[in-house]
Design a protein that fits this description.
globular, three-stranded parallel sheet, binds iron/sulfur cluster, TIM Barrel, alpha/beta, 42% helix, single chain, iron-sulfur
Length: 377
């Protein structure tokens, strides 16, 4: 039995206890300041423990951003560069392969690959990033490209979406990350990223990925110009696709970091705002198995508390994170397994290493292998 007692929350509490779906208006109410954060967290924790018990998942992973040169200029982005900027780079084959070797040497099970849309790079170069790594390190799961990049590849190849997806799968693509979602509502999208792939393209890409058997993640970038209305709209759109395809594994609420962006006048979300969004996400997305507290963005302390506000995953050890550090993230650029496990245990949860597809990772002297599927996946 929950200890919650605020009267305006009572109808929602009844629905959550009965396992019923929350409506758009319920979601808006959860953002009402009259709803106390601890009570909201308690409700989200009920769902979190129902789906994933006391487990808190992590993985051993690395990031690869093969270039930061980008034709777009999303106002929230501090990572992109023009070709002639001092900080611009474009990796060659040796640099890409060296990252793969480093990942394998450090026991990584996953490489997360996203980057800029370089106007001089041909589609074949993007494909080669995947095929080189897959051929050299087949045990490394490649979680790569957002719908923004896939949309760009369609333009480069003049081929339809399904062709591009199948070609990338043929090269070694294992799953897709959740980026490029930002906020789906056009009122917001037109202010922060009007040129890149719109919400229709984002959903079409993930639907196609799911139809082709790929699992994908999904995200929401919050804390900039959007209102609670836009966030709930965003979450419900994700929930609707999941009803159709059941292809999303994890939702990751991404806290906006303003430094070095075109929105640097905006203050980044506070800890309570982060926790409220985490809890609302868990409550609204009743059909997505996992909610991630991405420690790089939230900060370690908030990520720990988030494990009792709906989150059951903390992301990974991470190496070479650039995108949020360029935007002012003050977290370390990586963490050891021992540190990750300790922070999970300090939060009162049981650390479990997973691979990208949420299978328990078994490690031995000979290396690692994926065991059975875990959690509510
Ligand atoms: S968010 Fe992505 S598409 Fe937008 S400017 Fe940054 S790198 Fe380019």
């Amino acid at each position: 039995m929950l200890r919650t007692s605020t009267p305006i929350l009572a109808p929602i509490r009844e629905k959550v206890e009965a396992g019923e779906r929350l409506s758009f208006d319920d979601g808006l109410l959860l953002y009402d300041p009259q709803v106390p954060l601890p009570e909201l967290g308690e409700l989200a924790n009920l769902v979190r423990e129902r789906k994933n018990g006391n487990a808190a998942y992590y993985n051993i992973n690395t990031h690869l951003n093969p270039t930061n040169v980008c034709v777009y200029r999303c106002t929230f982005c501090a990572f992109r560069a023009d070709l002639r900027d001092k900080k611009s780079y474009w990796m060659n084959d040796e640099q890409v392969l060296a990252r793969g070797q480093e990942a394998v040497n450090n026991g990584c099970t996953e490489m997360h690959i996203v980057g800029g849309l370089h106007h001089q790079a041909k589609y074949e170069w993007y494909r080669k990033v995947i095929s080189l790594l897959h051929e050299a390190y087949p045990e490394l799961h490649l979680k790569a490209w957002t719908p923004v990049e896939i949309d760009w590849f369609e333009r480069l190849t003049k081929q339809p979406l399904r062709w591009v997806m199948e070609d990338m799968i043929d090269a070694g693509l294992g799953s897709m990350p959740g980026g490029g979602a930002e906020i789906f509502h056009p009122e917001v999208r037109s202010q922060i990223c009007e040129h890149k792939a719109d919400s229709g393209r984002w959903f079409e890409t993930h639907r196609t990925a799911h139809e082709l058997g790929l699992r994908t993640n999904c995200t929401m970038l919050y804390g900039h110009v959007e209102k609670p209305f836009h966030r709930i709209d965003h979450l419900i759109r994700l929930r609707e696709l999941q009803d159709e395809t059941n292809g999303f594994q994890t939702f990751i609420p991404l806290a906006f970091h303003p430094d070095n962006t075109g929105l640097s006048h905006i203050k980044k979300p506070t800890g309570p705002e982060d926790l409220r969004t985490m809890a609302v996400s868990r409550l609204m997305l009743d059909n997505i198995p996992h909610i991630k507290a991405y420690w790089i963005m939230l900060g370690i302390g908030t990520a720990q508390i988030a494990l009792s506000y709906g989150a059951d995953d903390i992301d990974g050890t991470v190496r070479h994170e650039l995108i949020y550090h360029d935007a002012g993230a003050e977290t370390p650029e990586m963490m050891t397994v021992a540190d990750l496990r300790r922070l999970i245990e300090e939060a009162g949860r049981e650390p479990i290493e997973r691979d990208t597809l949420y299978r328990r990772v078994e490690r031995s002297e000979a290396g690692w292998e994926a065991g059975a599927a875990i959690g509510s996946n």
